[in-house]
Design goal:
The chain is α+β, with helices and mostly antiparallel strands and 121 residues long. The chain contains four helices and eight strands. It has one domain: Nucleotide cyclase, GGDEF domain (Alpha-Beta Plaits), CATH 3.30.70.1230.
């Protein structure tokens, strides 16, 4: 269910963890739509994933990605409630008129070494 949905939105899984995964998407809009679709399908199976979506610089070393963009998304995921998605303010500004979803302002949040504005979906 996860890999086919990610592929449907042209995403690529770049890192697997014990209980999660990191996806690189070609556009912010695709990333948010993919996250919403995944949450809907995972919830129907009784799975409570937490997701974060960010846009930012990353470095691809051929085996994994690193950088500020990856650090912030990991922090946003940590702020998410089960079965929810937390997006950065930069993501929100790019998708608010393009992705129909209910957005709730979580205000300024400290994640890793960065301060970011975030929205809960």
């Amino acid at each position: 269910m996860i890999k086919p949905n990610i592929a449907d939105f042209s995403g690529i899984i770049v890192h697997l963890t014990g209980d999660g995964f990191l996806v690189d998407s070609p556009t912010v809009q695709d990333a948010v739509k993919c996250a919403i679709t995944l949450q809907d399908e995972l919830a129907s199976c009784g799975l409570d994933f937490r997701m974060g979506v960010n846009v930012g610089d990353i470095v691809d070393d051929g085996e994994d990605i690193h950088g500020e963009g990856e650090n912030v998304v990991a922090g946003l995921e940590g702020l998410a409630e089960p079965s929810s998605i937390v997006i950065s303010a930069d993501v929100y500004n790019q998708v608010k008129n393009r992705v129909d979803a209910e957005y709730k302002d979580k205000g300024a949040q400290k994640v890793k070494t960065s301060m970011t504005q975030s929205k809960l979906m």
